[in-house]
């Protein structure tokens, strides 16, 4: 369990250390000509000065020190400045700054078994110094390994898109913020044991693997063409129906079933064709 400490200011100790060092120099110089006792006093002042200097520590902004006393956790110092602690304490530096992790591009299979490439960007920082220092071995390596595992699990839990799974509520390609939220929660659950706080996690790269990218692109193009053709046919049918109704309501011309079928066929060709139709004028009668 993390315990925050607020040690005493180190400025007074720094003045004392300087005074002891000056005294050590004075007694040493004086003892050379007068008495060996002065030399002994100089050595004691110098040793005390070194001892107190060992207890001084400078903590930069957004940094911390984890303190131990012969293997026992004492506490963590998170304030910045010059402090004095027990010189017998051992300390470990831990940064509290936010860090970016650009994950490598991983090749995994999505929920439908299709090989895809995925990479994420993660913003994280240390929230609990005790867990980061003692619950895991090298917390930075722990973050990298667990992040990769979380990304693999995410990719295997959802399809890349809804081409094969039409009823998929969430896909990797269209999930957006919801996929990112799921990824953040997955990382938080995995990294909480190391005292890591996830500030942001987003997918930075997502694509089909190279061996199926061409086939999937053709499939997407075919799906888009079919969808476009469906819209075109729906519009053409509506226009033909409107034309027949107008001709009938306005009594412009009366057509039997055979001529109506021919007219519908011609209109559908004109409206659904990829190229512009070439008109042919009929100079004879309607039936010749």
UniProtKB/TrEMBL annotation:
Residues 54-220 form the Band domain. One of its GO terms (biological process) is proteolysis. The lineage of its organism: Bacteria, Pseudomonadati, Bacteroidota, Flavobacteriia, Flavobacteriales. Pfam families: Band_7. PANTHER family: BAND 7 DOMAIN-CONTAINING PROTEIN, MEMBRANE PROTEIN-RELATED. It comes from the Bacteria. It is found in: Membrane. It comes from Chryseobacterium sediminis. InterPro entries: Band_7, Band_7/SPFH_dom_sf. Keywords: Hydrolase, Membrane, Protease, Transmembrane, Transmembrane helix. Its main location: membrane. The keyword Transmembrane helix applies. GO terms for molecular function: peptidase activity. The chain crosses the membrane at residues 12-29, 35-59. This is Regulator of protease activity HflC (Stomatin/prohibitin superfamily). One of its GO terms (cellular component) is membrane.
């Amino acid at each position: 369990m993390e315990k925050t400490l607020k040690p005493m200011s180190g400025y007074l100790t720094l003045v004392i250390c300087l005074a002891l060092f000056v005294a050590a120099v004075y007694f040493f110089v004086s003892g050379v000509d007068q008495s060996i006792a002065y030399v002994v006093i100089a050595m004691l002042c110098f040793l005390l000065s070194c001892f107190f200097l060992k207890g001084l520590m400078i903590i930069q902004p957004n940094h911390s020190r984890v303190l131990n006393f012969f293997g026992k956790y004492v506490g963590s110092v998170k304030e910045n400045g010059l402090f004095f602690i027990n010189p017998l304490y051992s300390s470990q530096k831990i940064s509290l700054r936010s860090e970016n992790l650009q994950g490598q591009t991983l090749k995994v299979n999505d929920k439908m078994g299709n090989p895809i490439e995925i990479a994420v960007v993660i913003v994280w920082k240390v929230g609990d110094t005790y867990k980061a220092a003692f619950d895991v071995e090298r917390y930075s390596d722990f973050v990298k390994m667990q992040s990769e595992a979380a990304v693999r699990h995410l990719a295997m839990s959802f399809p890349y898109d809804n081409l094969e799974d039409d009823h998929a509520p969430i896909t990797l390609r269209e999930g957006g913020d919801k996929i990112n939220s799921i990824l953040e929660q997955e990382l938080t659950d995995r990294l909480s044991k190391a005292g890591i706080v996830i500030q942001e996690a987003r997918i930075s790269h997502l694509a089909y693997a190279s061996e199926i990218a061409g086939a999937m692109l053709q499939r997407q193009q075919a799906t888009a063409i079919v969808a476009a053709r469906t819209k075109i046919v729906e519009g053409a049918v509506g226009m033909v129906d409107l034309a027949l109704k107008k001709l009938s309501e306005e009594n412009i011309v009366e057509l039997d079933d055979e001529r109506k079928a021919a007219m519908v066929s011609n209109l559908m060709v004109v409206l659904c064709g990829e190229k512009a139709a070439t008109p042919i004028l009929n100079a004879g009668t309607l039936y010749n």
